[in-house]
Design a protein that fits this description.
The chain has 14 helices and 8 strands. By secondary structure, the protein is an alpha/beta fold. β3, α1 and β4 form a beta-alpha-beta unit. The longest helix has 14 residues.
Length: 342
């Protein structure tokens, strides 16, 4: 199944996106997170395009070939959601099935809560509903204080997000020093041996940065179970061109995002799928309370857990694709592609 490259341009914003599948197929839009690209859905686009969906994966603002901005406030969820609505209009559609991961998840959740008429159904990986899109203080209320005692871990596993707010220039400079080494270190599979231990992200400020006193990421071997060398080169080239300012700025809008989130519906009634990652110890939905608000606020929810780390769609694509396809065929059957006529 061929994957093609396209642009959706308005006077406000330009979105680059990848596409697979028939142009008249039901629309299925995959929304990536930090610090990724449309390429993050390389295992999903050909599969669902082959099933007959029009599978789309945009580069989010600040990434890849989409518009890049130099103010933190340009990366608030109000702006990102507006990008996705413009993309939907450019595709000539009223509604879509949306799938998100990492920072793509709050965008998809926000679309569902603010614009349910634009959502046939929504699925998200790793980040549950009613968490980060409701602001940082709400995230803190869901921290597992048995694992993260407040006197030692006041921000729990979310400590790294405060590091951006307190040391934004330093954080970006270290990532920008060698984007290839940065992504090679970040894109790694989950480790079952780390279960029950505080996540590395809980000690970023204490350590003096993501990589402690180092001015660039250390050179670790590539994790071939998650990315190829070609994948790393594509990620790194895009980050060299754009820098980490945009990607990191997503973490600088918690107050604005919380205000925006409060205006949306607190309950989702469309079909919802949530896929958790067992070895994602930051977005821990297996043994913590992080997913409880979602379970209380989604009236048509299915959940599944994959034995993988945070980059679950890249680490375990077959499992993720199977879960998505099963859910689409059962809970979103009205949008299952019609068989091709030959």
């Amino acid at each position: 199944m061929e994957i093609t490259s396209h642009f959706a341009r308005t006077a406000r914003h330009t979105t680059h996106y990848l596409a697979a599948g028939p142009e008249d197929g039901p629309l299925l839009i995959f929304v990536h997170g930090w610090p990724e690209l449309s390429r993050s859905w390389r295992h999903q686009l050909p599969v669902f395009g082959g099933l007959g969906y029009r599978a789309i994966a945009p580069d989010m603002r600040g990434y890849g070939q989409s518009s890049n901005y130099r103010r933190h406030e340009d990366y608030a969820q109000t702006e990102v959601v507006a990008d996705m609505l413009e993309l939907l209009a450019a595709l000539g559609a009223e509604r879509a099935i949306w799938v998100g991961h990492d920072w793509g998840s709050p965008t998809v959740w926000s679309l569902a809560s603010h614009h349910p008429e634009r959502c046939v159904a929504v699925a998200n990986l790793c980040v549950p509903f009613a968490t980060i899109e409701y602001g940082f203080e709400h995230l803190l209320s869901l921290v597992d204080r048995d694992l993260y005692p407040i006197e030692h871990f006041p921000a729990g596993q979310w400590d790294y997000q405060l590091y951006y707010q307190e040391n934004f220039e330093r954080a970006g400079a270290v990532f920008d020093a060698d984007p290839y080494l940065t992504v090679k270190l970040l894109f790694r599979k989950g480790d079952p041996a780390d279960a029950g231990k505080p996540a590395f992200t809980s000690q970023v400020r204490r350590n003096g940065g993501w990589f402690g006193p180092l001015n660039a990421a250390p050179d670790l071997p590539r994790d071939a179970d998650v990315v190829t060398e070609e994948d790393l080169q594509v990620y790194a080239e895009a980050l060299r061109r754009n820098g980490f300012f945009g990607p990191d700025s997503y973490y600088m809008n918690h107050t604005a995002n919380a205000a925006f989130g409060a205006l949306g519906s607190a309950t989702l009634d469309m079909p919802v799928l949530f896929i958790g990652a067992r070895y994602d110890y930051v977005c821990n939905t297996v043994t913590s309370r992080l997913a409880e608000p979602m379970r209380a606020r989604c009236t048509n929810l299915r959940e599944a857990v994959v034995d993988a780390g945070h980059w679950v769609a890249q680490e375990k694509p077959r499992e993720v694709n199977a879960l998505l396809a099963r859910w689409l065929a059962s809970d979103v059957a009205s949008s299952w592609p019609a068989p091709a006529l030959t």
